[in-house]
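User: I'm putting together a teaching handout on how multi-component assemblies are represented. Below are the sequence lines for each component of a complex, exactly as they appear in our records. Could you produce the 3D structure of the whole assembly as C-alpha cells, so the students can see both representations side by side? Please keep the chain order the same as the input.
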Amino acid sequence: GAVVSQHPSWVICKSGTSVKIECRSLDFQATTMFWYRQFPKQSLMLMATSNEGSKATYEQGVEKDKFLINHASLTLSTLTVTSAHPEDSSFYICSARGGTSGNRQFFGPGTRLTVL
Amino acid sequence: KQEVTQIPAALSVPEGENLVLNCSFTDSAIYNLQWFRQDPGKGLTSLLLIQSSQREQTSGRLNASLDKSSGRSTLYIAASQPGDSATYLCAVRGQGGGGADGLTFGKGTHLIIQP
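Assistant: Of course. Below is the structure of the complete assembly, with chains in the same order as your input.
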C-alpha cells in the first residue's frame, strides 16, 4: 500500500514553455502533499507544502508565481513550472502523507525536467 | 534553520561487511527522523522512521538509532549485499507547522557493495 505515482517520468521542453507535473496517491487519501527538487549531487530541497483545498505554503526562495501548485483533490496534486528556463532543469519529486500512512511521507518516482 | 549532514559522502566495502552510516542535525527539536534509500534516477524508498521519543528502529538487517539531544542518528547495515548499493538519505521533520512540516534532507551517503 501507500503508492505514489508521478507523471511524466521525464520531460524535455524549450525555454519559455510551461510544464505540468502530476502527483497521485493511488491507494490512500493524501491530506498533505509535498514538492521537492533535487539538483545533481545535492540534497532534496523542499519547495512547498500543500494541503487539500487550500493554498500551498512555499519555502523561502521559491517563487510561487513560477511554481504553481494545485491540490484540488485528496489524491492529486499538480506542479506547473511556468516559463521554464534551463536553470529550472532538475529532478522534481513529490511526496504524500495521510490516511493510514500516519507520519510517514511516501515518495513518488520523480520527474526529470530538462529545459533546453 | 535545520541542517542535516551525512558522513561519509561515499563508501565502498566488500560484500558481507557490517557498516554504519552517520547523520547529524543542528536543531534537536525534531518530530521524527527517517532513513531513505534512493537508487539512481529513482524516487525514494522509506527504510525506517524513528519518532522523536524513540531510540531505535529495526527492520531486517537494518537498525537505526536516534540520539535527539546530541543531534545524531546512525544507520547500521548488517551483512551487506550487492543489492544494498544505493544512496542512503537521512531526513528530519521539524516540529512546527507549515513549511517546517516538510523534511530536511542530508546530501546522502553513496554506498557501493562490492561482490
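A couple of points students might notice: Residues 10 and 20 of chain A are 11 Å apart (CA to CA). The interface with chain B takes residues 4, 6, 32, 34, 36, 41-46, 48-49, 57-60, 91, 93, 95, 103-110, 112 of chain A (CB under 8 Å).
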